[in-house]
Every structure is written in C-alpha cells, then in structure tokens.
Amino acid sequence: MLLYMSNSRQETPSTPLHSVSVAGVVVRGDGRVLTIKRADNGTWEPPGGVLELAEAPEDGVRREIYEETGITVRVGRLTGVYKNTSRGIVALVFRCHAEGGHERLSEESAAVEWLTPDEVTSRMTEVYAVRVTDALLNGAPRVRVHDGRTLAGR
C-alpha cells in the first residue's frame, strides 16, 4: 500500500490514495506474448498483480509472472505507466524475456497462452491490450489514464 505524504500541515491524517501494481509483457522469439485468462473474472491480461510494500518493481514482476504462469523471466525496460482513475491503481508495465520454467495454471490463472499481437487485441479489453501493444513498441514509456474500461483522450 502506498501512503500519501505531504509537506503541508493537515487537520486530519492523510489516507492511502493509490495502490501500485506491476505487469510483465513477456515476448517470445516468435513474437508471441505470454498471457493469462484470470480465474476470478475470465478476462485476458498480461500476468501481474499488486506490488508488495517492501518489494522492488522488478522483483514484483518476476514474482507475479512466476506465480501466475510458471515462467521465469528477465525483466527489461519499463514500457508504460497506466492510471485507473476509478480504482486508484497505478500500474507499471515492463517488457520481459522468458528464461525458463513451464506454463502452468495457478489459483489466479484459468489459462496460460502465448498469443500473437492480433490475438491480444481481439481477446483483451482495450485497457489491457494497449499495455501489450505499447510494450512491443520502442521508445519512451507511455503514460496513459483510463477508467477501468476506456482510455482517456482516445
């Protein structure tokens, strides 16, 4: 949980305003991307989850990918920062490369598949598909805002 801190004096103590999540876009040599179908809601997403308080972002990405898919990864560059305004979640997305392991299901993943970029855009909602497409591009990390369903400014 991320605590909001301010230099200004406040009448009441501040409360946590955001949580931070991490996700990894794991790209195979053939261009396919590691994805999960979430067990709780059936949506397709890149693997990821909530960053633990004392955890570095790269360590959180490695942990979440392994827990959800059984794949070990090398974490590469930050490819995007995504703010969900309706839930107060800031997601950090990294491009990753598989190093080992074998695909397996978990309590969080009902399916684990390597999808083509076209399959990603057809199976994932806009706010998750854009994380993958942004990660496949070169250049500076993208910064995007959404309401949980639709990107702002599109």
Description:
This protein has 3 helices and 8 strands. The protein has helices at 57-69, 117-123, 126-136, and strands spanning 19-26, 33-38, 44-45, 48-50, 71-84, 89-101, 109-115, 142-146. The strands form 2 sheets. A 5-stranded mixed beta sheet has the order 4-1-6-5-8, with helices on both faces. Strands 3-2-7 form a 3-stranded antiparallel beta sheet. Helix 2 (117-123) packs antiparallel against helix 3. The model is unreliable at 1-10 (pLDDT under 50).
Task: Describe the secondary structure blueprint for this structure.
Elements: E1 19-26, E2 33-38, E3 44-45, E4 48-50, H1 57-69, E5 71-84, E6 89-101, E7 109-115, H2 117-123, H3 126-136, E8 142-146
Parallel strand pairs: 1-6, 5-8
Antiparallel strand pairs: 1-4, 2-3, 2-7, 5-6
Short description:
Helix content is 20%, strand content 38%. The chain is built from three helices and eight strands, in the order ββββαβββααβ.
Terminus-to-terminus distance: 30 Å
Helical percentage? 10-25%
**How do the strands of the widest beta sheet line up side by side?**
4-1-6-5-8
- If you compute it from the alpha carbons, what radius of gyration comes out, rounded to the nearest whole angstrom? 16 Å
Beta-sheet strand percentage? 35-45%
Query: In DSSP terms, counting alpha (H) and pi (I) runs of 4 or more, how many helices?
Result: 3
Query: What would the principal axes of the Cα set say about the shape?
Result: globular
Order of helices and strands: EEEEHEEEHHE
Low-confidence stretches: 1-10
